[in-house]
Amino acid sequence: MRKHELRLIAGILLVLGSTWIGLFHQRIVAAAPERNQANEVFLPIIPIRSSPPMNDLQVIHLGLFQSVQSQSNDVTLIAHKPAILRVYAQVSDSIGPAPASRIRIDARRNGTPIGSLTSDSHVISSHPTSEDMASTINVDLPVEWLSGSLELTATIDGADVIPEFSEANNSIRATFQFQDVAPLEIVIIPITYNDTVTGKTYAEAAHDPISGWLLSAFPVNAVKVTIHAPLQFTGNLRQGDDWGRLLGEITTLWGNEAGPDSSQIYFGLVPNRAADSSGWFNGGVSGLGWIGQRVSVGLDTGPDTGPAAAHEIGHNLGRRHAPCGNPSGVDPHFPYPNASIGVFGVDTSDETLLDPILTHDMMSYCGPEWVSDYTYEGLFQDQYLRGGKSGHRGQGTYITTLVDGPQADDLLAKSENFGQAAAGRYRVQVLNDKGAILASYPAELYVAEEMGTTVTMLGAFIPAEAGTLTGGNLRFLDGDQVVLEKSVKAWPELK
Ligand SMILES: [Zn+2]
Question: What is the pTM of this model?
Answer without folding.
Answer: 0.86
